[in-house]
Prior knowledge:
Elements: E1 7-9, E2 19-24, E3 31-34, E4 39-47, E5 50-54, E6 57-61, E7 65-69, E8 74-79, E9 84-91, H1 92-99, H2 106-112, E10 116-119, H3 123-140, H4 148-169, H5 181-193, H6 200-207, H7 211-222, H8 226-244, H9 249-255, H10 261-272, H11 276-288
Antiparallel strand pairs: 1-2, 2-9, 3-8, 4-7, 4-9, 5-6, 5-8, 7-10
Helix pairs in contact: 1-4, 2-4, 3-4, 5-6, 8-11, 9-10
Amino acid sequence: MPSSLHRRSHLPLPGAHSVIAQRIVPALHAQRWTLDSGLSYAIHLQSGRGRVVHDEGELPLRTHDVAWMPAGSGQALRVDPGSAGVSVGVSDTLLAAAMGDRPAMAALRQVSLRRFALTAAEPAAREELVRSLLAIEAEARRDAEASPPYLVAHLTLVLVMLWRLSSSGGDALPAAGAVAPRLLRFRHLVEAQYRAHWPLSRYAAEMGISTDRLHDLCRTSLGRSPLELVHQRLVREACSLLAGTDLAVERVAADLGFGSTSHFSRFFKRWLRQSPSAWRAHARAQAAAGRAALPASYADWP
């Protein structure tokens, strides 16, 4: 039986819908939730059974299991009657803030790009992880009064515990290969600076490589130029703001660092062949019909 999507929170963080969180409350019937393709999800099943539907099949969940789904991979969460737990979806913006760009956080960045489920058999470790998930869920219910540093701190703890459990304790099911450190570095620089409209030379300098090397790295690994990747991030954020808020197009343009609304409109139309206003109307019609309108996430990095 379909259920409405998790409670949305419009938090004072860059970007729309930074957190979508929900307690999974036992019901007499099976329950199903659609997962937002632009968010990464941590899901804990306190009791019962369930499964996460993803782009390559299904990931079964049992009592005490924890699942992590990178943005763009999860499609739906289904649980059997009587199941209980918590589901927390976070945006790339919040994820980047939780991990930072320090080399010491490389392990967490790798965890965030894998799809897996594991059984948190050790009570102490499981309780610590669940405590942070529930803290994020409770803070998200504060909506505009939610504290970004609080959310970031608990998300960092969630990632640390997932890394520890998947490295040493649980029955982990990884689903991603080796991660290219330089592409990870570029991804997180883009996440932090795409609104600033850095030139590619600035990204390359921050990474300690030449602009040509950055171009070759992206083309060889992803089939896209670095400028395309930056622009796709801008387009996705623009779509998220247009579809998920009532902000005027002028405000969206300003929030995304464009010097004028006309510049933003030309940029947007070049990518999606519609003006921002026309795309917003189309997206809302699609949402009313139960269909997603947002472009794909850039979660395939690297």
